[in-house]
Amino acid sequence: MKIEYIFIRKSKSTSAVKDSRRFFQNMFKNIFQEVTFDTFQFEVAGSPQQISYKSSILNDDIIYLTISFDSSPYFSAKVLSQVNDCLIGGKHRKDFYIINSYDEPSEYFCEKLAPRFGKFERLMRSFIYISLTKSLGFGWFESTFTEEIQTDIKSKGNIGKPDLIERGLYEMTFAQLQDYLFK
Q: How would you list the strands of the sheet with 47-57, edge to edge?
């Protein structure tokens, strides 16, 4: 089971990442245990679990990260959801927007409720995120969302600009996503 992320540099004043493996190894040392170039340990209920990761650099501003863990479907989803919570919070966020572009733990849990629809929706959001961030960078949200959609999403709660860049598509209902794509 895996979760895929897109890291977008917030400012040109932040140094560009030249070696994504070393970058994530250094970042993960502050979050997880026993960090190597492609694995780290995460403790669940007192038991350390080995999590794998791989990364690649698209350009000076965008880095892709995939974390994976293979166990029973339920346990994998539980562990990766907890790892995700650690990864999307913390000091390391100050220099990067972190977009969760594909989330198999969510797929697992949603599959129990609406299997085909859930998978289609996640793959569609992933495709949109990858396409828009590749072509527009962190400006994808402001460049492509109408004022109406921005206002509607902001009205759902305490959502700031970084949240909109990172979770904008996830904050939309499926009907809003349809309007966004086809109107």
A: 39-44, 47-57, 62-68, 2-9, 96-103
